[in-house]
Amino acid sequence: MSAKTEKRREPQSSESSLRIVADEVVHCRKCPRLVVYREQVAREKRRAFREHEYWGKPIPGFGDPHAKLFILGLAPAAHGGNRTGRVFTGDRSADFLFAALYAAGFANQPTSLHRDDGLQVLGAYIAAACRCAPPDNKPLPSELLNCRGYLERELEILQPKALLALGKIAWDATLDLLKARGVIQSRAAYPFGHGAEATLPAPWPRLFGIYHPSQQNTQTGKVTPAMYATVLQRIREFVAAAF
Known about the structure:
Blueprint: H1 14-26, H2 32-44, E1 62-63, E2 69-73, H3 81-84, H4 92-103, E3 124-128, H5 141-158, E4 162-166, H6 168-180, E5 197-198, E6 206-210, H7 215-218, H8 225-241
Parallel strand pairs: 2-3, 2-4, 4-6
Antiparallel strand pairs: 1-3, 5-6
Helix pairs in contact: 1-5, 4-8
């Protein structure tokens, strides 16, 4: 076909581009250990959910296709995201996280129960560093590496102003991506901590850190709603000033 007769191709929207990535995530089988575990959990189930049909597959990111805040968690919970098919959905971590996001104006409701619950993430997009539920909630370095390409593509599509890492593994996964791209030389210059904030070379987003909303942290008081509110308010102010 000549240049004169070839139709001009319109660039893909961020929404359609994210759908392509999501479809690839759902069909991913790169990590044999995770495939075996997530499917075993889906078959055996937890007694409280024995009547539920488990998702049992990798979990794609979800949220606003025009998000300026990217929220990165660790991995789907075995009986949370691995059951419901949506990250931070149907478990105690989800209860804590979405109560905080709702209070900060990043969600239309304070609960995340199942995929058809009407939840909308406002101005934010949520994904996990590891897209499958791992045994003991501990993905291997090789498994995080296999998922890195999905994170990289989502960031390229969204081009967010801020990235909030929920816990050190998500923080390190972000820095490992930047190191692999030659953006930074070492993670050592960017130590993790609750309320940590790192300015990365342009055009990469400002990196914020926060303790993971796991039961181990929320039930022991290591992290509180007030602590989350402070960081989320700082992020909201930063994103607003970035325009």
